[in-house]
Amino acid sequence: MSNKCSVAPQWVYSEVDVADNSTTVFSGPCLLRAAWVTTALSAHAVPILDGGASGTNIGTFAASAAILDKIEFYDMRVETDLFVDPNDAGTGKIIFLYAPNHDGLAGSGYSV
């Protein structure tokens, strides 16, 4: 019997409706691969943060970003929480592709 387990990331996605205002995409550390617009954004920039509303800005979609505009994060490690903090009047939708971190094994789903 083999006790092998995969530590390859298990990528998941989450769609954020910018009209919902500030949103925690994932609560906890994760690897962030990419984000792209699925419904055109209004004339407001959309910051992507690590650590909530007062966290570190790790990327921003420009105001009026079009469908399929994309930001590549190249598996950036988000240390705290993956968070979006758009303008209160912002509209549009963005998909985030990320791998949750489970007990140090990014996206593995296994506890150690």
Task: Describe what you observe in this structure.
- The relative contact order is 0.37.
- The protein is 0% helix and 51% strand.
- The radius of gyration is 15 Å and the shape is globular.
- Strand 8 (93-102) and strand 9 (105-106) form a beta hairpin.
- The chain is built from no helices and nine strands.
- The strands form two sheets. Strands 1, 3, 6, 8 and 9 form a five-stranded antiparallel β-sheet that branches. A four-stranded antiparallel β-sheet has the order 2-7-4-5, with no helix packed on it.
- With 112 residues, the chain is mainly β.
- It has a single domain, classed as Jelly Rolls (Sandwich).
Strand content: over 45%
Helix-strand string:
EEEEEEEEE
Please identify the structural class as seen in this structure. mainly beta
Can you identify the CATH superfamily? Nucleoplasmin core domain
What tags apply to this protein structure?
mainly beta, Jelly Rolls, about 110 residues
Any chance you could write out the topology, listing elements then pairs?
Elements: E1 12-17, E2 23-27, E3 30-39, E4 46-50, E5 56-61, E6 70-78, E7 81-84, E8 93-102, E9 105-106
Antiparallel strand pairs: 1-8, 2-7, 3-6, 3-8, 4-5, 4-7, 8-9
